[in-house]
Amino acid sequence: MKNILATSNGERRFAGLSLTALALAGSMAASTLWGAWATHKLIELDSREVVTVQLSRIMGDFVEGEARAGRSAEETQARVGAYLKAVESSVQNLGRDGRTVLVAEAVVSGGVPDLTDQVRADVAKRLGLQPGAPGRGVR
Fold first, then answer.
1. Distance between CA atoms of 11 and 107, rounded to whole angstroms?
2. At what angle do helices 116-127 and 55-69 cross, to 10 degrees?
3. Which one, 3, 18, 95, 117, has least CB within 10 Å?
4. For the chain, first and last CA: distance in Å?
5. Which CATH class is domain 49-127?
6. CA 63 distance to own-chain centroid
């Protein structure tokens, strides 16, 4: 009876290296690439701008203006819904620009730029409202 383990023709090799050595080299190369990528992402996070937006002030001013406008409840509800969508979209755009947006009511320190007026102007532009006149505007 023939021993099939004894008839092996030696260790498998590629370019003079064993498969184990090739696997270790590949693993080290992948680890190095991942480390470079992770470092790049961490440095990128460090350069993000942190800003605040006073959402309660924006919404309060708009709702107050709507209350004084004397519109029907259905029309007011529709306008408030459109305003909420525009505010959300405007804040999301700030986030896409590489900023971290914090709600001002949740921020303790005052060392962060406040972009409330920028959001208010963007929402007014989206809805066709006159700037500075919350809730009142021509559509």
1. 64
2. 40
3. 3
4. 95
5. alpha beta
6. 27
Place of tokens 């409330």: 116
Amino acid at 11: E
DSSP at 5: T
Comparing C-alpha atoms, which of 86, 87, 116, 91 is closest to residue 101? 91
Place of tokens 């500075």: 132
Q: Which pLDDT value is given to residue 39? A: 92
State which amino acid sits at residue 82.
Answer: A
The answer to whether the beta carbons of residues 127 and 82 sit under 8 Å apart is yes
- pLDDT (0 to 100) of residue 29: 97
Q: Is the distance from CB of 54 to CB of 116 less than 8 angstroms?
A: yes
Q: How far apart are CA 116 and CA 70, in angstroms?
A: 26
- Which pLDDT score, from 0 to 100, does residue 23 have? 92
Main-chain phi, psi angles of 56, to 5 degrees: -65, -35
Phi and psi at 131, nearest 5°, equal -60, 140
Write out residues in the chain with pLDDT < 70, as ranges: 1-12, 106-110, 130-139
In DSSP notation, 61-114 reads HHHHHHHHHT--HHHHHHHHHHHHHHHHHHHHHHHHTTEEEEEGGG---S-S-B
